Amino acid sequence: MPKITINAKTLEVPAGTTVLEASLEAGYQIPTLCHVAGRPALGACRVCVVEIGGYPRLQAACSTPIAEGMEIKTNSPQVREARRTVMELLLSEHQGLCTICDRDEDCELRKIAGTLGIQGTPYEGAQALLSLDESTAALYRNTGKCIKCRRCVSVCHEVQGVGALFPQGRGFDTLIGPAFSSPLAEVVCVQCGQCAAVCPVGAIGERQQVDAVWSALSDTSKHVVVQTAPAIRAALGECFGYPPGTVVTGKMVAALRRLGFDAIFDTNFTADLTIMEEGSELLSRLKTVLVDHGEAALPLFTSCSPGWINFAETFFPQMLPHISSCKSPQQMFGALAKTYYAEKIGVDPKDMVVVSVMPCTAKKAEAERPEMRASGYQDVDHVLTTRELALMIKTIGLDFRGLPDESMDTPFGISTGAADIFANSGGVMEAALRAAYELVTGRSLPGDNLHVTQVAGLTGVKEASLVLSDLLPDWSFLEGVQLNVAVAHGLGNARNLVEGIMRGERRYHFVEIMTCPGGCIGGGGQPRMTTDDVRLARMEAIFREDEGKEHRKSHENPYVQALYKEFLGEPLGHKSHQLLHTSYGV
Ligand code: HC0
């Protein structure tokens, strides 16, 4: 291993390590505005410059690999002076307006300027062109705040495989945005918000719906219910100083109650319902092919992640027949809240407001799709991100950490551990397999370890195969059939998987795709900054939540069972088709 010196400290680090990583190892965090841990270097912002003995000029630490005998200074007068100049230049063209910026608390530009003691900029003159794009339901883009770090470009192209954002022009006139400065709504953007998750300033963010929710909460003629997505509980605590991986379900419920919601429900309830509907859809397609020798589109793809739906509609329209007709749990919830639940409590659905708290920005756009009005009204009225919920809690000055743990309301607040794990990449698959095994064999899964480790974790594409035996008579057609499943997260991985399937190189029966790296725990609306370490901590927290549940299989949810008995009839029945299923198109 090469031996190097950093600020007079000698250490050995593996070949290939960058100066930025080696410095962290030596105990020095070098500021950067373009680098994201675990991602390839961009070398764009130049804030991370360091002095290296023998080099004629300062080097960017993020893109310089260490070499034997390097003598690195991360804090020389020359380094400090250069960093200040770079930061002053960035600040001179950044339209701050900090007091009304939603990055008020976590702006990386402001934080680094503060650590360098910068209190103003000596540069005056032209400002960056200000243009505000609010053309999508999910995201805004403000070019006046953009510092051209290219993090958004990198994540959109290399992680998501979408390519909606580009650097255009040169020098001071450089603009980051869609080609020809088109609005986001007119390009291939899938509204996943991964750009907003990595933006160091307030140049891209979610279009907030906080004011609309405050209005609903203060309107006494409205019955306002809230649903919380599986991934929120493992991340909201980070906004209140808890380390990543802290589950705050009880405090989240207590906070929502104090915000004034009339009922606190869980998207997890309809995640359990999704397993019933989507599992039935899969078995029905398998039966068509294996028993009736008819035609059914296999593999079946999951449909719950709206960025994936947008991606498929844009890039793979020929695969749409393969996508489950199930609406996402968010939308199933809205449709049921304004029909079954409204009737149950005697509220006119026009007076019911359904609010979602989601880790996902694309959920805002999903709620506004014209087909999501099964109740006769927009089924989900407002969608908040995890960050927006934290903002509302801070607005009313709640001591979040001091809140007691409270429970969700019935009937839609009760869920199983299988629903919790929807938040993790591989979770929908695991939940489906837990239910399928028991429903098809009539036997309980042996032991307490229900995890399907082949589809868990951060590998981009994961696969598993299983053969079920001793099946119940109705399912005997599956006897001896090798069922192949796959899971992809991050749309770049999804693209590779789908293209492999289209070329006939890969054959599966069921495929889970989640838009964001790690699944919803890594959603574009989650607290910043989501690194792989943070993803893994949140995933473990979700598994702990699942393991602590009384029921861990969706078909065991007593309230889901009651819903079928009282209202829906059976999975894939007439009412389910009316309320819980849809079709997708371009
Ligand atoms: Fe997800 Fe969902 S699990 S997409 O990842 O299925 O956003 O958390 O809410 O709807 O349940 C996001 C998270 C959800 C939905 C659920 C699914």
TrEMBL record:
Signal peptide (from-to): none
Superkingdom classification of source: Bacteria
Transmembrane domains' residue ranges: none
Cofactor names: [4Fe-4S] cluster; [2Fe-2S] cluster
Protein family per UniProt: Belongs to the complex I 75 kDa subunit family.
Pfam family, one: Fer4_7
Subcellular location: Membrane
Alphabetically ordered keywords of this record: 2Fe-2S, 4Fe-4S, Iron, Iron-sulfur, Membrane, Metal-binding, NAD, Repeat, Translocase
Domain 4Fe-4S ferredoxin-type stretches: 137-168, 180-209
GO molecular function, one term: ferredoxin hydrogenase activity
Residues covered by the 2Fe-2S ferredoxin-type domain: 2-78
InterPro entries tied to this protein: 2Fe-2S_ferredoxin-like_sf, 2Fe-2S_ferredoxin-type, 4Fe4S_Fe-S-bd, 4Fe4S_Fe_S_CS, Cytosolic_Fe-S_CAF, Fe_hydrogenase, Fe_hydrogenase_lsu_C, Fe_hydrogenase_ssu
Cellular component terms per the entry's GO annotation: membrane
Protein known as: NAD(P)-dependent iron-only hydrogenase catalytic subunit
4Fe-4S His(Cys)3-ligated-type domain ranges (all copies): 78-117
Major localisation: membrane
